[in-house]
Amino acid sequence: MKEEWLHFIWKMKRLPLNLKTKKGESIEIIHPGIHNLDSGPDFFEAKIKINQLIWSGNVEIHIRSSDWLKHKHQLDEAYNNVILHVVFIHDLDIQMNNELLPVLELQRIIAMEDIEKISQLSSNMSSIPCAHRWGEVPEIIKYKEIESAFFRRLERKSFIFDKRLKELNFDILKLKFELLGKIILTKVNELPMVELLTRIPTALLKRLNTEERTALLLGVSGLIPEVSEIDEVKSLKNEASFLMNKYQILPMNKASWKFFGCRPRAYPTIRIVLFSLLMDDDILFNEFETKELFLSWIENKSIVLPEFWKNNTHFKSSSLTIKNTFSKELKILIISNFIVLFYYWQFSKINSIEQLQELISLAYNLPPEKNSKIESFKKLGQKIKSIAETQGLLELINEFCNNKKCLSCQIGNKLLTS
Questions:
Q1: Helix 139-167 to helix 341-349 angle, to the nearest 10 degrees?
Q2: Is 47 helix (H, G, I), strand (E, B) or coil?
């Protein structure tokens, strides 16, 4: 038995009608209250009829009555307005305001069928616990949960941006560079990319021309070899050494970067060059304008790597030819995980409703992202039309499915109550 299971049963009123307290008083649940996910009582503003008297207040739920003392609620004034103590096992009377706190014991009255459903769903080791029953859920419920998850992701990311901006001493351009850099370098190399950008002053990165900036980024990354017979590598090394000496910047350990598991076009060397080129893109770094501008950017924006990088993936000649390192999929990823998330955070701060609407419209007009997690939903028959939906599904799988929070999900709730 887990406490959150009891929360679900209480919230969904999965209880018989003829309820009684341990003292034999009749109970009618008029309203179970508002589920509180922060500190304090578990449900606020509940309305309960005990005998003939209607009480309004809070409800606290525990596995055992004695957990009240174990959690030291008797010392916390936030619990002074608890009107009912709901427990699985009643093992101790609790005094509050010199009176016994009314107790509803669930051990013998809840349907074990409900508990078994919850247990099976919560213990399922699949990346999507409800995958085997996905088709049973009405499309409207799935759509609503995916949409809710999309907006939860926007809010969660906004909180992260707030925190990170403080850590960066409110250098908002550095934050934008970081966000773009992490997308371009992918999860495999996002941490060394953040370290790389931390070592170089933002103003310097913006002031240098493209060739100087690329040389400095590669030099500080530690990836340029000390010795090479290739003229282009020698030139890069000389330029990087000059800038690093001039601005007193130390190189990273090249072992920080991962090549294994990356396709050649996603090697950190190639992606650092691509990142440097994108830093000159006004559409990405100017103020947000219209959704049409970004839709056009996805269709028409192209970046051609310098000739050297087409056949030199790691500062040495290769038989491979790097093609299409700036794919449409990557452009969609940049708009969805950089532009949409960043500007939602910005526009929410100034409460710019018109710009928020334009941004959300952009998210619903962009084609969906492609990755293995999204493919797992497609295999279940889920039709996905936009990045708003892929962002919602990513939030579902990362924050809910992976953490088995089925009881906080409308899809899980539907399966558990049907």
A1: 70
A2: strand
Q: What confidence category does residue 319 fall into, taking pLDDT thresholds of 50, 70 and 90?
A: low
DSSP states of 258-284: --TT--GGGSHHHHHHHHHHHTT-HHH
**Residue matched to tokens 């334009």:** 358
- CB of 373 within 8 A of CB of 130? no
For range 231-240, the mean pLDDT: 92
One-letter amino acid for residue 292 of the chain: E
| 187 vs 11: CA distance, rounded Å | 38
At 340, list the tokens: 């949409």
Tell me if 61 sits within 8 A of 83, measured CB to CB.
no
Residue 19 phi/psi, 5-degree rounding, is -95, 150
Mean pLDDT of 200-211: 94
DSSP string, 317-369: --S-----SS-HHHHHHHIIIIIIHHHHHHHHHTT-HHHHHHHHHHHHHSPPP
- Residues ≥6 apart with Cβ < 8 Å to 54: 30, 47, 48
**b or e along 250-289 (b: 16 or more beta carbons within 10 Å of the residue's beta carbon)?**
ebbeeebbeeeebebbbbbbbbbbbbbbbbeeeebeeebe
Residue 320 has pLDDT above 70, yes or no: no
Provide the total of helices (H) and of strands (E) in the chain, helices listed first. 17, 9
